[in-house]
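Q: Here's a chain of 548 amino acids. Please give me its 3D structure as C-alpha cells.
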Amino acid sequence: MFFGVLLATVAGLTRLLWAVLAPGGWTVLKLLILACFLGVAPWLGVCVGNALPGFLIRLLSATPGRAVLPVLGDIEGGPITARTAVVVTVRNEDMADVLPALGRLFEWLTPYGDRFAAFVLSDTSEPALAAREEAAVAAFSPPVGYRRRSENTGFKAGNLMDFLDHHAANFELALVLDADSEMSAESVLRLVRAMQAGPRIGIIQHLTVGTPAAAAFPRLFQFGMRAGMRIWATGQAWWQGDAGPYWGHNAILRIAPFRAHARLAALPDGSTILSHDQVEAAQLRAAGWGVCVWAEEAGSLEKNPPALPEFLRRDARWLAGNMQYRHLLLLPGLAPMGRWQLVQAILLFAGAPLYTALLALAALNATCCGADVPRGALLALTLAWTAAIYAPKLLGYAEVLLSRDLRAQYGGGRNFAAGAAAEFGFTLLLDALSQPSKTLALARLAVGAPAGWLPQNRGERGVGWREATLMFWPHTLFGLAVFALLTQASAVAVLWALPFAGGLLVAIPFCVVTASPPVSAWLRRRGIAATPEELQAATRSNPSGSSR
C-alpha cells in the first residue's frame, strides 16, 4: 500500500508537470526540468505514503501509538524485571546542561531501586574540560557512573559499543540518550515494559520533540517539526512494523543482540561510518531482531539548533553521514527493508541539487516559453506539489485542529492556528535556502572535503550581519539571478515564485532576525508557536492564570 501511494503520487505529479510543459513543444530546457523532477519525485511520494496512513490512524484510533507497535501485553503497568543502563553520550559538553535532566529522571525512578543505573560516556578531548566534567559527575546525586575514552574512535557509535563491551555485563537493556536529551520516567518505564513484552525486539525508538525554546529559530522550527513527525512516524511505524528506523537517541535497545549484530565495520575506503543509527538498525533486523517505533511524543525531548548557522551545519553533518550509505546498499545479508531505510536516508539529501537545478531551469524556461504555460495546469501542479512535500506537517496541523483535546494543549484553536501560520511561512523561507546549502555541502564532499563530526553549539545566541552575509551571499546572488530571469518573463512569474524561492532574496536578514533576542521575546510574549510543554510549564509557574 505504501509503495502504491508513492507510485500514484509520482504518476499524478508527473502527469501535471507534463501538462504544464507540453504546450509549445518540447525543448532541451523542458526535458531537463522533467528529468530533475523525476529525480526528486520519489521523495514526494515517500512524504505522502507515510502521511496518509499516519493521519488516518491518529484520527481513528484511540491509542495510535499502541496501534502501530507490534508488541502484545501490558506496557502501561506491571513489574519492571529487566535491568536497564541509562547512558548519556557526551563530548566537550557543559555538564550543567546535561546532568539536571538525568537527575529529574532518576528522582522518579528511585522506587525501582537497582533496576536502573545511570552512566555518562565521555569522549571529551580537552583535559581541562574533562576534569571539570568528571568533578561534576562525582559531585552529582544520585550516583552516576562515569567512563571517559582517551580517543574518539568510532565517534558516538564506538563510544556506546565500548561501554556495552566492557561495562554492561549486569544489564539487559540500555536506554541511549544524547547530551541534549530528556525523557520522563513514564516514557522510560513504558519502553522497558514494551521490551519485556516483546522478547524478539532489539530496539524501540521513541518519537522525540523539541525542548521548549526561547529563541525564534528553534521555536518556529520545532513547532512544525513535531506536527509532521508525529504523522510521519505513525504512518511509517504502521507499514514498516518491526523493520523500522532508529535515530540513535531517546531509544531503548537490547544489549546482547545489539552487541552481537550492530557492530560497525569500516567503509570500503577505510573511513568510519558517521550516521551509525540506520546501519545498526538494518544489521540488527537482518539478524532477526525487530526495530520498532513508539509513535507518541509525550515525555521525550531534545534540543534543536539555536540558530540557522548551527542548523545548516547539523544538516551538513547528517548529509555527509547519510551519503556514505551508498557504499552499503549492496552489503551482503541485509533485509530488503534494511536497504530501504538506507535508500530513504539518502533521498533525504540527494535531491537537493535537483531542486536547485529545477528552480534555475524553471526561471530560464519562463523567459523563453512562459507564454506557452497553461496557468490552470501550473496552479494545479503548484498546489499538488506543495500538498505532497508538506503532507505530514499539514495533516499534523489538521489533526490538532480536529481534536478538542489537542487544541486545548496548545492553548486553543486560535493560538494554534497563529503558530501554524507563522511556522509555515518560516518553513517556506527556510526551505528555499536550505536546498542550495545542501547542494554546496554535497559539492564539498564531491571534491574531497573531509566529513567530520565536530562538537555542537547548543547555547542560544544572536547572529550578526557580518556572519550572516559571509554565510549567505551565494544564496542571495543565486536568488537575484533567478528573479532577474523571472522579471524578464512577467510579473506573474515573479509572484508565483516568491512563496517558494523568496527565501533566497532574504537569506541574510532571515538568518539575523530568527536569532534576534527582541524577535524571540516578541514571539514568547504572544505565545506564538508555544508547545504544550511550554504552556504546561507556564501554568505551573502561574497557576492563577494571570498575564505573565
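Q: Can you summarize the key feature?
A: The chain is about 60% helix and 10% strand.
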